[in-house]
Design a protein that fits this description.
Elements lengths: L5 E5 L4 E8 L4 E8 L5 H5 L7 E5 L3 E2 L18 E3 L2 E2 L12 H7 L3 E4 L3 H11 L2 E7 L4 H10 L6 H5 L5 E3 L5 E6 L4 H9 L3 E6 L4 H5 L5 E4 L10 H10 L5 E4 L1 H9 L4 E17 L4 E13 L9 E7 L5 E6 L4 E4 L15 H21 L1
Parallel strand pairs: 3-4, 4-6, 5-7, 6-8, 11-12, 11-13, 13-14, 14-19
Antiparallel strand pairs: 1-2, 1-9, 2-8, 3-9, 10-12, 15-16, 15-17, 17-18, 18-19
Helix pairs in contact: 8-9
Length: 368
Amino acid sequence: MYKFNRQLVLADGTVFKGYAFGASTQALGEVVFNTGMTGYQETLSDPSYNGQIITFTYPLIGNYGINRFDYETINPSIKGMVVREACHKPSNFRSGKTLDQVLSELNIPGISGIDTRALTRKIRAFGTIKGVIANLDQDPQELVALMQATDLPQDQIAQVATKTSYPVTGRGYRVVLVDLGMKSSILRELTARGCDVVVVPFDASEEEIMRQNPDGVMLTNGPGDPTSVPQTIATIAKLIPQVPIFGICMGHQLIALASGAKTYKLKFGHRGANHPVKNILTNKVSITSQNHGYAVDLDSLANTDLELTHISLNDGTCEGVRHKNFLTFSVQYHPEAAPGPHDANEVFDQFIANMEEFINKNKELQHA
């Protein structure tokens, strides 16, 4: 019988003993949980999980392996992975490597064999918490002291966003894509619609963005606290009157902040692929993919030019807004899915329609 050889120690002193897989390194991060039944490859490579230790609630992870097509970034930045059972002999025609092999290559430690249900219930009861994945010979009290002495990073967006601008050419509308920790699937949705995309860093100025003559600006997902990038918030405030803007997840929160609303940290966040969201303008309900630890304060929208468009049917939190005067809108969920359902994919078409309206209005003004 296998013997425990690794442990997950939480900041409150709780210890979960289990088996090692992935890299043999020690890792400290914020422990969160994801409720998706599939999509572990897209999840581990989602830049919005930067700095976090992901607990999967589904009991078997790795059973269809890892392939070269489903990465959301080429440099995954999660700190660690926690599963009930890690499959070491996957079965799928696209599988190229096992989960264990890939995590080892990425220097990401994993722990299996623990009671992930108990861990998830603890996070739901007390909120997200710091944790350390370490070898079993490490003193848990020393690891708790390490967590108490270590602050989680505040520059998470800067850690994962592009440092330089680059084009992804197309023949359609010109979109400046502000990279806050972009999932590749967002870029794929734009290129699938023929957009001519210029990807820019999160700290690109209003002048740099408008120099590209955009028909629209898109703000991507990203990790961490939205208030940590005040320069980006100020830039968005300048852009809103000038050009159509579409924000997803972190982009949604930054649009809210740029318009005078507030954000707050959720107790344990929304992370999974089956979250129901209601469009209060149409009464349509979509099942959505989500990954965020912060939310827009509903009450704070009252003093802004934003109006609520979508709400979560799980907890009533803000899932979408639009500007009353300009072609700016955003959603908290991930319409590009990956992983998850594509129920809400149509919001990309709304962005295309807004750019078309913007261009037509400009033509009318030029001929007036």
